[in-house]
Amino acid sequence: MSVSVPRRAPVQTRERLMNAAFEEVYHNGFQGSDLKAILARAGVTKGALYHHFDGKEALGHAVIEHVIARITQDKWLAPLDDVDDPIDALLGILDDTGTSDAEVNGGCPLNNLAQEMSPLDEGFRRRLSEIFTNWIGGVSDALRLGQINEKVRNDIDARDTATYLVATYEGYISLAKTAQDSRVLISGMKQLRLYLESLRA
């Protein structure tokens, strides 16, 4: 009697490839990442890769759209969705920012890839820019709702403030990565907390 061996579901294989590629790109950059290493991490064949993606570039685009975008959604946008007090929500997000050596030394995957690939590939630049735009938009919307709820000062421009917050947050992460020193990030988060408190109505 023959035994039926279940085939790996295509959706699971695609997820394994994207997650493996994300880890490889996070540690080595997109240009420094190796397809053989990605396949080994994912435990799949080259044929499986080309069944789901046209090549390394298409896999990189998928990592941005499905992995990095999801990280931003889960960390920033979901906690800010329809909150009464965005200042408290933003403070909570800052408190959840990792300051371990691995996290500090690795930096932000979104910003890492933006710095590396935006000048080189329009497909990467456009996808990365969309995530930043959505991120800033989510913070901005939350601040506007906070103004309506009388939790946030009415004399600030929500969009400008959101852009400043995102840029400053990313800047501190980049400085800490360059210094390889968590104290830089801890200090930066302290300053951002003080700034957020100053936005209360």
In short:
With 201 residues, the chain is mainly alpha-helical. It contains ten helices and no strands.
Output mean pLDDT: 92
Approximately what portion of the residues adopt beta-strand conformation? under 5%
Number of strands: 0
* Termini separation: 74 Å
Pick out its properties.
single chain, 201 residues, mainly alpha, 0% strand, elongated, disordered N terminus
Structure description:
With 201 residues, the chain is mainly alpha-helical. The protein is built from ten helices and no strands. 27% of the residues are buried. Residues 1-7 have low confidence and may be disordered.
Write the layout of secondary structure elements.
Blueprint: H1 10-28, H2 35-42, H3 46-52, H4 56-80, H5 86-95, H6 101-106, H7 109-117, H8 122-148, H9 158-179, H10 182-197
Helix pairs in contact: 1-2, 1-4, 4-5, 4-8, 5-10, 7-8, 8-9, 9-10
